[in-house]
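Help: read this over?
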Amino acid sequence: MSVLSYLQDCASEAVLSEQERLSIDRSIGNLQQKLKAYFDQDLSDHFRFGSTTRGTNLPRSLDEFADVDYNGCIQ
């Protein structure tokens, strides 16, 4: 195995699969619905930030502490 092929293999493992991306999007959508239902008019804003918005988040297999940064603002 050449150095280049090794690095290419490592890089390909560090990319989220489509299934992982869809799972995160479903979870965020679920969270948004629940926050809106619970806080109703008091929720002035909510947004995602950090590595998921930059597309630099790692798969759980490489980072067991991987998370999604999300903020909700209450009036």
Remarks:
- The longest helix spans residues 18-39.
